[in-house]
TrEMBL record:
Entries under InterPro entries matching the protein: 6-PGluconate_DH-like_C_sf, NAD(P)-bd_dom_sf, P5C_Rdtase_cat_N, P5CR-like_CS, P5CR_dimer, Pyrroline-COOH_reductase
Name of the protein: Pyrroline-5-carboxylate reductase
Keywords noted in UniProt: Amino-acid biosynthesis, Cytoplasm, NADP, Oxidoreductase, Proline biosynthesis
Function: Catalyzes the reduction of 1-pyrroline-5-carboxylate (PCA) to L-proline.
Family matches, as PROSITE patterns: P5CR
Residues that hold NADPH according to the record: N62
Catalytic reactions of this protein: L-proline + NAD(+) = (S)-1-pyrroline-5-carboxylate + NADH + 2 H(+); L-proline + NADP(+) = (S)-1-pyrroline-5-carboxylate + NADPH + 2 H(+)
Length: 278
């Protein structure tokens, strides 16, 4: 069981994981987070009752935070991961499991910036963890034991579905479920814009789009739900929905979505290269 956890970098993603985790049995007193700005640290401490340290005020915040932690979450941007690993290495306990949520940072890039043999896990979460409907894919490093992998699972299991995947699947996961919530929000924006084109007022348009996306998403969470079956349940033969789906297909919407996911995965691969090139 996790006794102490440190979040190094607690922005959108770190906070989503933190919020989901604190909804479980973990006490806020078991959590320490670090961020750059004092205002953000105060906000996190106030909102969640955790200890939050700001690098602007406490230059050793990250090294202090990892002391005594069984799990450390690296929640900074990919470009900052190696430097952060090197910064904490001198104070990191050899048994502490280091979980990176950074897109595109490989296990070997992580390990090469940490003490030899440090247990590492590469994770690709998504922000719906915040409302405990997230999904995360984990890939453990070669020296990470089953018990240490179980600690990484524990970070996420109360906030969503946890999958174990081979590391070479991580860019695809990032392109589908890591970035995916943004695709859904973009769809909601486009649906609201379409509503306004009918002359509906902005508020009505936003409410219709938001509740439709949220309600449809909730239906997908029911046991055995299949999106194609649910779609047929809305589409009367010869009716209005069928006309809309036919227009989507004529415009190549499925191909457009696939192209978006391909672009995301290609960008992840490019970032990995850029990080290696230094
Ligand atoms: N936002 C998302 O939906 C997802 C993000 N990720 C990954 O999560 C990581 C963080 O992304 P976001 O949360 O979106 O970024 P963000 O910019 O919202 O958060 C980063 C946080 O790290 C802090 N920070 C930066 N350098 C620091 C340092 N040296 N020490 C302590 N704190 C530091 C910043 O103050 C900020 O609070 C990225 O590597 C990204 O690839 C992964 C999956 C989804
Ligand atoms: O946009 C990004 O780079 C991150 C990784 C997955 C989702 N957000």
């Amino acid at each position: 069981m996790i006794k102490r956890i440190a979040f190094l970098g607690c922005g959108s993603m770190g906070e989503a994981i933190l919020a989901g985790l604190l909804g479980s049995e973990l006490s806020p007193s078991a959590v320490v987070s670090t961020v750059r700005r004092v205002e953000r640290a105060e906000e996190l401490a106030h909102r969640y009752g955790i200890t939050a340290l700001a690098g602007a005020e406490e230059p050793d915040a990250n090294s202090l935070a990892v002391q005594g932690a069984d799990v450390v979450i690296l929640g900074v941007k990919p470009i900052g991961i190696a430097g952060l690993c090197r910064e904490i290495s001198p104070t990191l306990d050899a048994r502490t499991v280091v979980v990176s949520v950074a897109a595109a940072v490989s296990l070997s890039q992580l390990s090469s910036a940490l003490p030899p043999g440090q247990p590492v896990v590469r994770a690709m979460p998504n922000t719906p963890l915040k409302v405990r409907r997230g999904v995360v894919a984990l890939s453990a490093g070669p020296t990470t034991t089953a018990q240490q992998q179980a600690l990484a699972h524990e970070v996420f299991v109360s906030s969503g579905v946890v999958l174990d995947v081979p590391e070479d699947a991580q860019n695809a996961v990032s392109a589908i479920s890591g970035s995916g919530p943004a695709y859904v929000f973009y769809f909601a924006e486009a649906l609201a814009a379409a509503a306004e084109e009918f002359g509906l007022d902005e508020d009505t348009a936003r409410i219709l789009a938001r509740e439709t996306v949220a309600g449809g998403g909730l239906m997908l969470t029911q046991p055995g739900a299949d999106p194609a079956v649910l779609r047929r349940g809305v589409s009367s033969p010869g009716g209005t929905t069928e006309a809309a789906i036919a227009a989507f297909q004529a415009q190549g919407l499925a191909g457009i979505i696939a192209a978006g996911a391909q672009a995301a995965a290609a960008r992840a691969a490019a970032i990995t290269e850029e990080l290696s090139a230094g």
